[in-house]
Amino acid sequence: MELTSHEAADRLGIGQRRVRRLVADGTLRGHRFGGVWHLDRDDVTRRQASTPTRGRPWSERICWGGLWLLSGLTPDWLGDAEKSRLRKRLRETTPQALALAVRQRADVEHCRILPTYLETATKDQGGAGAGVSAALAAGADILSMDLAELYCDRRTREQLFTRFAITTTSSSPNLTVRTIEDPALARAVLATRTAMPAAVVAVDLIESADARTTHAGTELAARLLADFRRA
Q: How, if at all, do strands 107-111 and 175-180 pair?
């Protein structure tokens, strides 16, 4: 029995692009027929069973507050009571649970850009490198020369897509763009930052469809959480 990519995405609670990436890396078996991807139902069921239960996601400002605290930074946009509650949550969470909790921190697009522009786009003014683009600096054991990730606000996103002719329809994306929708929060988070702090990088990596990248992110998050509990 088979499921379409749309049905599989609904079951797994992810986008169809993520489903296609899971097929590409061999996590799910599938084939394309009549312009539609069809996946093995048993594979999808096993993946669904092995995925942690998705609890209620944190709000955007709480997501960033938690990641800032875990990175040793001060989230000035939160009150003292909110920070206290967040510290308790962080001491009790796990890497996978953290990644699920902060999944609404930004709007995610998996895109294609000409490889010539890949490095330039991630260093463009207004954006901050993240995920694989900031992994080594954050202490994660992963390196990718042909992929890039960044965070930006909505205005910068539009400028980047126009300037570099970025597309979102490619079956082989090489750029992940995460857009922070709240303008005030985007200003506070991005400021003059050129790369995201370690906790942000960790959850970016955990969300990858690549097993090695996910493992590197999980290890980084585990170290950060252990240090946070000891502090």
A: antiparallel
CA distance 212 to 178: 21
Instruction: Show the tokens assigned to 97.
Output: 């649970």
Read off the pLDDT of residues 162-219 as tens digits, 9 standing for 90 and up.
Answer: 999 999 988 899 999 999 999 999 999 998 899 999 999 999 999 988 889 999 999 9
Alpha helices in the chain (DSSP H): 5-12, 16-24, 41-50, 60-70, 80-92, 95-101, 118-122, 135-138, 154-163, 183-190, 198-206, 211-230
pLDDT of 11: 72
Q: Return the DSSP state at 122.
A: H
CA end-to-end span of the chain, whole Å? 51
- 3-state class (DSSP) for residue 167: strand
- The pTM of the full predicted model, rounded to 2 decimals, is 0.78
Query: Could you tell me which residues come within 8 angstroms of residue 143 by beta carbon, excluding any fewer than 6 positions away?
Result: 132, 135, 136
Burial class, 92, CB count within 10 angstroms (exposed 0-12 / middle 13-18 / buried 19+):
exposed
